[in-house]
Amino acid sequence: MMGSAMTIPLRDNQHEVRLVGTPLDRDIIDHVQETGVHPKMQRQLPAGVQPIQVDDLEEALDGADLLISGVSSFGVDWFSETVLPLIPDGRLPVLAVTKGLAEGPEGAITPFPYLWRERLKGEKHVSFNAIGGPCTSYELADRRHSCVAFCGDEPAVLERLREMLETPYYHISVSTDVCGVEAAVGLKNAYALGVTLAVGMIEREEGVGCTPAYNPQAGLFGQSMREMGRLVPMFGGRPESVAYGVSDLYVTVFGGRTRRLGTLLGRGLAFAEAMGELEDVTLESVAIATAVANTLRKREATGEIRLADFPLLEHIDGILNQGMVMNIPWERFERREL
Amino acid sequence: MMGSAMTIPLRDNQHEVRLVGTPLDRDIIDHVQETGVHPKMQRQLPAGVQPIQVDDLEEALDGADLLISGVSSFGVDWFSETVLPLIPDGRLPVLAVTKGLAEGPEGAITPFPYLWRERLKGEKHVSFNAIGGPCTSYELADRRHSCVAFCGDEPAVLERLREMLETPYYHISVSTDVCGVEAAVGLKNAYALGVTLAVGMIEREEGVGCTPAYNPQAGLFGQSMREMGRLVPMFGGRPESVAYGVSDLYVTVFGGRTRRLGTLLGRGLAFAEAMGELEDVTLESVAIATAVANTLRKREATGEIRLADFPLLEHIDGILNQGMVMNIPWERFERREL
């Protein structure tokens, strides 16, 4: 959906746009070819967008100035295996909307731009860049003011991407802090589960449809910000990048699949029960929370950190992977700064 | 209202509670005496709370272990003149719910605990402490999980206050960073105006009652966090205290008078027009935004900082004090971290 939403600023800037689906998107591409409407996003795509099935990927790349990757974190390997070999050496930058973090060996966390670069094994040069920050696809498609960050290693490429994509509503910051931006916006998926536990917790007490309570959400939001603020530098990022993740957390709490799962878990459902109610959903939040908790456990084993110092993440992992149910450890969020 | 809401954890901990109104609260105290209900908060106060008119303030203080000040920032001088003289030397700690920042000379910003201490001129010792963090009075009165911070200079006093007030739903952190906690939670009032501009902006485009848009709010939220993150250390606070203000911003955006004003301003109303629609309202957000902008202008005059480096605050001040209307400077939020 986000890949498709990117066609709006692209077409507004008069670029020629070829929208290529993955093998999982055949029906979507068919539908766009027939109607011009993205069936999941339920938005008319701009005139001039060329919807293309994956079979014609190679031709679609011919003469391209920019490759925007719209795969989710579950499509990262497919992208590596299928798309990377087709990218010409040194000429076609990649800009990925994928949010996620790959679990490396020995407690390492690798952002996808670096994972893809590693997989090239130095055989050719590709500039890998990524988008972070608070921007939902629906609202970008509606041309809502959206503030994002493009991150990558090459300032000149970042500036060029910014020029290609900025519009009066799509506001682009640029940063060479790939580890920081990617860690921050990946972590927000995990912590959005944490904040939305409070939504379900209140519903359990008072029934679905009750007046929402914001004090509990805000307490979890503050704890999320503190834990993210310590994890981002631990994963090699700069402190100033945390704000991209915290503002992205703000927008993620308001809707979508992660909120639905967090709400169900907050009502006291076990993870398996909650997933049973959410049919046919793959959740990046679950993958990221698990990857980060695994990583922290590895670092704990070497004495580097204590997972218990991240009580909200530990609780999220407990629900997802240790059979626990919601029992927010409020008292462990308390601090003594004396 | 927050002062009255504090009676809930106090009574849950079996304290004897005397609820004394200011001269402006006579009708409220009358009402509580007759019905037990706080008429503005619309909540029954716990059994055993003794509502007392200000005339009997001196007797009410007799034998007290703790004085909780519930005045808003507009009552700070009244508190200085009327209550401070009655506090015995060295024996009765003060815990204030007041959020605000006093504009000092030469670009100084003084938190209220320090303002009150200065006004004592060393004639006696009073331990001044304050509460920050995301907690609305309504939800505290409903015993919602709420995470707050008590700040003050004396760790032993802070720990004692925590013991007196903590409950299974009222979660208390303690911090000696008075400047940081007070700056962070004061600033959130100013920035809540900024974030809620986006609510009115969308309403102007699509009509009141339209589907809310969160990308613009989140962009403003991220910018607020960045500006708060730079102002808190500038006002003498520690970086870890920023999270109390950012989580408080989260809860403030969802309701109350500041959101109503921000929404009206976001629709493009001039400040005077918006205030005309909000009858009989005194707004701490307006006072704080103005005080901080004035302070930054004084510091700009000495070459220390540039107000333009705080574009959201500058825009809020422009609307409140320079006759501007909403025209969010999105492109000035963009960053180049290269």
List keywords for this structure.
homodimer; 338 residues; alpha/beta; Rossmann fold; N-(1-d-carboxylethyl)-l-norvaline Dehydrogenase, domain 2; five-stranded mixed sheet; 15 helices; 13% strand; globular
Describe this structure in words.
The first copy, chain A, has 338 residues and is an alpha/beta fold. Chain A has two domains: 2-176, NAD(P)-binding Rossmann-like Domain (Rossmann fold), CATH 3.40.50; 179-333, N-(1-d-carboxylethyl)-l-norvaline Dehydrogenase, domain 2. Chain A has 15 helices and twelve strands. Chain A has helices spanning 2-5, 7-12, 26-35, 57-61, 76-83, 112-120, 137-141, 155-165, 178-206, 214-234, 242-252, 257-266, 271-277, 284-301, 311-321; strands at residues 17-20, 37-38, 43-44, 49-52, 67-69, 94-96, 101-103, 109-111, 128-132, 146-151, 170-175, 336-337. In chain A, the strands form four sheets. A five-stranded mixed β-sheet of chain A has the order 5-6-9-10-11, sandwiched between helices. In chain A, strands 1-4 form a two-stranded parallel sheet. At the A-B interface, strand 10, strand 11, helix 9, helix 10 and helix 11 of A face strand 10, strand 11, helix 10, helix 11 and strand 12 of B.
